Every structure is written in structure tokens, then in C-alpha cells.
Amino acid sequence: MQGNVLDPAKVAQVAAGQDVVVSAISPKGQSLQMLTDAAQSLLEGVKRAGGKRLIIIAPGERTGTYRLGTEQLVTDEKGESHISAEDFAVALLDEIEQPRFSRQRFTAAY
Q: First CA to last CA across the chain, in angstroms?
């Protein structure tokens, strides 16, 4: 579906009746203010539509692997936590299609 991410009314129109709203706008060449405005518009529009889940992702490189956690941050052997937007998107879509953490916080990283 398409709409204007900066217009909460259009976001609400597109989001109406959806279980999950996923935004994958590209921040390339955009100002930080535009991204902030888009996030606020998405939040307001999804709220107006009665939506329950909003997921925002951005581009990166996919490795095809990730680990999941719950309340604790998932870290590597150096104590760092990172994940590409593509792998994070896959983790989110996996959770949407096969929920394991309904109404719970979960984390994803390498």
C-alpha cells in the first residue's frame, strides 16, 4: 500500500483495518527533521486508525542470521549489540507471521 508518510490522515486511511503497519521509508538524502516528522505522522495516523503495531525499518545489509532475546540486550563476545536493518526486518516479519513474544519486549542482534 502507498500513502503520504507526512500526512497523518493519509497514514490513517492506509492503515485502517491492518493488523500491523510496517514503514520502510529510506532516509537517504532526507533531513533528520523529515524523518522525525514522518515518525510523528506515522504514530498519529496509526493511532487514528486504531492500529496496534507500528514497525519502522531502514535499509542496510542482510547477513541471514540473528539471535533473539527478551528483557536482556543481545550482545556479541565484545559486549556489543548490533544488527542490520534487513536482518532486523526479517526478525520482525518472523514475529508477525509466527508470534512468540505477544505483548512482550524482545530483542534481536547478532
A: 31
Find the angle CA(101)-CA(107)-CA(110) to the nearest 5 degrees: 130
Strand pairing report for 107-109 and 21-23? unpaired
Residue type, 3: G
What gap in Å lies between CA 23 and CA 82, rounded to an integer?
20
Q: Identify residue 1 by its one-letter amino acid code.
A: M
* Lookup result for grid cell 486511511: 13
Q: Over the chain, what is the mean pLDDT?
A: 86
Residues 5-44: b if buried by 16+ CB within 10 A, e if exposed: beebeebbebbeeeeebebebeeeeeeeeeeeebeebbee
What pLDDT sits at residue 27?
64
Determine contact, residues 5/35, Cβ cutoff 8 Å. Answer: no
Q: Where are the beta strands (DSSP E) in 1-110?
A: 21-23, 54-56, 67-69, 107-109
pLDDT tens readout for residues 21-46: 888 777 667 777 887 898 899 999 99
